[in-house]
Amino acid sequence: MPIDNRVINPALARQLFEKSAKLKRKRQGAPAAIESFPRVIKTITGLWRYTEGQKYLEELIMMEGGKRRAGFPLEAQEELMFLYQLLLDQHRILSLRGQKITLSRPPGTKFTMGNKL
C-alpha cells in the first residue's frame, strides 16, 4: 500500500490498514458488531462530514455523569472508538488541505441525544 507522507502519518496509516484488514477478515465470518445497531449506523453515516458526527460518537463512547444505559458489547465499543479516531484523523487531514468540516447539521437531522440544538 503506497503511503503519501504529506497527508497522513505513515505509522497511523499502517495502523489503519491493519485494522481495516482485521475487520475485513472478521467480515468474512459474522458481520461487524456495530452492524447489530442499524439506527446507530444510519446516524453515524448521516452525520459523518458534520461536527455533529463527532459529538454523536463522543456521546456513544463516553458515559457522562450519573447517566445509566445498557451500553454496547465490547466489540461494538472497539469499533465505535475506531470510527471516532478515523473521523478525527479525517478532520485533521481536511484541515491540512485547507478544507473545512461543515459546522451546521445536515437538513432534516433530529439528533438530540442529550444535547439541545
User: Given the C-alpha coordinates, what overall shape results?
Assistant: globular
Could you name the ranges where pLDDT drops below 50 across 5 or more consecutive residues? 113-117
Q: Assign a percent range to the helix content.
A: 40-55%
Number of helices: 4
What is the alpha-carbon Rg in Å? Answer: 16 Å
DSSP strand content? under 5%
N-C termini distance: 42 Å
Number of strands: 0
What order do the SSEs take from the amino end to the carboxyl end, as H and E? Answer: HHHH
The largest sheet, given as strand count, sense and whether it forms a barrel, is: none
Secondary-structure-derived class: mainly alpha
Mean pLDDT: 76
Task: Using brief descriptors, characterize the structure shown.
mainly alpha; about 0% strand; globular; about 120 residues; disordered C terminus; single chain
Provide structural commentary.
Helix 2 runs antiparallel to helix 3 and helix 3 packs antiparallel against helix 4. The protein has a domain of 76 residues. The chain has 117 residues and is an all-alpha fold. The C terminus is likely disordered. 53% of the residues lie in helices and 0% in strands. It contains four helices and no strands.
